[in-house]
Amino acid sequence: MLDNRKLGELPEINGKLVKSIFRVVFHDRRLQYTEHQQLEGWRWNRPGDRILDIDIPMSVGIIDPRANPTQLNTVEFLWDPAKRTSVFIQVHCISTEFTMRKHGGEKGVPFRVQIDTFKENENGEYTEHLHSASCQIKVFKPKGADRKQKTDREKMEKRTPHEKEKYQPSYETTILTECSPWPEITYVNSPSPGFNSSHSSFSLGEGNGSPNHQPEPPPPVTDVSLKLNNLLPTTTPQEAQQWLHRNRFSTFTRLFTNFSGADLLKLTRDDVIQICGPADGIRLFNALKGRMVRPRLTIYVCQESLQLREQQQQQQQQPQQKHEDGESNGTFFVYHAIYLEELTAVELTEKIAQLFSISPRQISQIYKQGPTGIHVLISDEMIQNFQEEACFILDTMKAETNDSYHIILK
Predict the structure, then answer these.
(1) Distance, CA of 261 to CA of 212 (rounded, Å)
(2) Considering only 143-152, 226-235, 287-296, 344-353, which range has the smallest mean pLDDT?
(3) Which one of 193, 202, 237, 271 has the fewest beta carbons within 10 angstroms of its own beta carbon?
(4) 273 φ/ψ sector (left φ>0, alpha ψ -120 to 50, else beta)
């Protein structure tokens, strides 16, 4: 944290403290519109955790750091511009937690770290804006971060010197760029916990243009049965409120304050659209009716080796007998359903690994048995051309490397 005033500028803050507010927000404008719902969903999935914290032991020169328990992505503190000050922050969420599907790798959403700094007014309240700066960040787990940095370096090395000139050079530290103040800040004259009575508090708006609305903390979960996603006619009004929070309908909890599960389930599609608007109304109606999204492709597989061994052992132990309907009393094949959404070889590998209770890394390749018994490598395009409800026998073959297998679809 550096005092970047020009000579003689703002003499009124000489020898005085200023307040800086740190926040982690969405860089993507599409996600900014639903920021409140996104943060509420994160709060329910990670109870007791914060998105942003200050690493107090590492930081130098900060005074009275404060983190509001209802604002998981915001921290603030006082500091003296005349003294050396450095702040280390911890971001506890990763970029892939807010993607529509768990792509992993480089597909995570970008965040923005923004710092707004304020000086005291005549009443001793920190409301007069001094400076704002921000930078874009992405947060990954260690292996994902290493993989992304390696990929970015390889992409840059392939570019010509002329193309490289279009990009910013690499720096040892991140320099934040000056920007507009964060618009959703509303200053209140009430004292804030952690500061003395002359310091003002602030509230973070929903991110949808209504900064005066203070998001309410969701009510605590008091019953194990509330973890179920389905709303029941026997659900009490309090449990219905928790269901709304958990399914990203926090904006409408006040409208449905006294609604029980039975009251909500009686609403027609037109009723819900009239109350909540077209987009959220359709989403709420589908959630109330428990409508499941059909998978793009369903296939059935069974493990050949295991079941054939069981059948052969049973045949050796007792002579095979025929039932009246002509079927043998041997072991019948049990198939498992695999539901695919992305129709990729990576997704199929993950689903088969779950079936075998092994890590996807232990599956080296997946083949489909073709004409004359040849092994054809499975590709995304091949999966996209699978017939709906196709049936396959899975056979395993030890790969050349240790602890890995080839899977063959027959």
Answers:
(1) 30
(2) 226-235
(3) 193
(4) alpha
User: How is residue 167 annotated by DSSP?
Assistant: S
Count each helix (H run) and each strand (E run) in the chain, helices first: 11, 16
How far is Cα 96 from Cα 45, in angstroms, rounded to an integer?
14
Q: Which two tokens stand for residue 246?
A: 């958990």
How far apart (Å, rounded) are the C-alpha atoms in residues 94 and 140? 5
Q: Are 111 and 68 in contact (CB under 8 A)?
A: no
Give the single-character DSSP code of 48.
Answer: T
Q: In whole angstroms, what is the distance from residue 249 CA to residue 268 CA?
A: 17
Neighbour-count burial for 122-136, b at 16+ CB within 10 Å, e otherwise: eeebbbeebbbbbee
Q: Residues 62-69: contacts with CB within 8 Å, 24+ apart?
A: 62/87, 63/17, 64/194, 64/195, 65/194, 66/192, 66/193, 66/194, 66/195, 68/192, 68/201, 69/217
Ramachandran quadrant class, 10 (left: phi over 0; alpha: psi -120 to 50; beta: rest):
left
Mapped onto helix, strand or coil, the DSSP state of residue 250 is: helix
Question: What is the percentage of the chain residues whose pLDDT exceeds 70?
Answer: 76
3-state helix, strand, coil in the chain (%, to 5): 30, 25, 45
Torsion of CA 6, 7, 11, 14, to 10 degrees: 90
State how far the Cα of 49 lies from the Cα of 43, in Å rounded to an integer. 7
> Whole-angstrom distance between the N-terminal and C-terminal Cα of the chain?
63
Q: Which two tokens stand for residue 320?
A: 């095979």
Q: CB within 8 A of 374, min separation 6: which ones?
A: none
pLDDT band, residue 255 (cuts 50/70/90) = confident
**Burial status of residue 279 (CB atoms within 10 A of its CB: 0-12, 13-18, 19 or more):** exposed
Question: What pLDDT sits at residue 184?
Answer: 53
Residue 293 and residue 306: Cα distance in Å, rounded?
33
User: What is the Cα–Cα distance from 117 to 207, expressed in whole angstroms?
Assistant: 20
H-state helical runs in 116-194:
142-157, 161-164
